[in-house]
Amino acid sequence: MSVKRLVTVAASAVAVAALFSPLSSASALDTGSQGTKTARLASGDGFLHVYTQPYGGGRECKWEGNSDNWGSCRNLTSDIWNNGYEGGNDAVDLYTAPNGGGAHACIDQGDRWIDTTTNKYHFTYGAGLEGFGASVNNNISSHRWVNYCSQH
Prior knowledge:
Blueprint: H1 3-20, E1 29-31, E2 37-40, E3 47-53, E4 57-63, E5 79-83, E6 91-97, E7 101-107, E8 111-113, E9 142-146
Antiparallel strand pairs: 1-2, 2-8, 3-4, 3-5, 5-8, 6-7, 6-9
């Protein structure tokens, strides 16, 4: 068998094995940080992804680190996916105002709020601050990576 054919057969075998193996030992749906079921994926790419329309529609913005101003996605987000790496600083606080200001919501690593237009997700941290209790849909201006979701 030629080297080229051997490589092709090996690559095909790997593709078939990947197709039929489970993504992770976790269930397909796990509880998100706000007590709702959210899609959870096996491994991260290190980015917070957001889309201007539900289900990955519209324009995508993504960040590997903190952002003080979401620019073209500021206050225009209806799908949020924390695909950061698991480990320290893997949760993301989402703020109502630029520079980490106002109330915030927190999304855990691996969680995806695929349709925030449903009014399920709210700014639940920072009582008394701008935006507290409001829907996150089209209301996020900045974010910070944090160790875990907590009230502070």
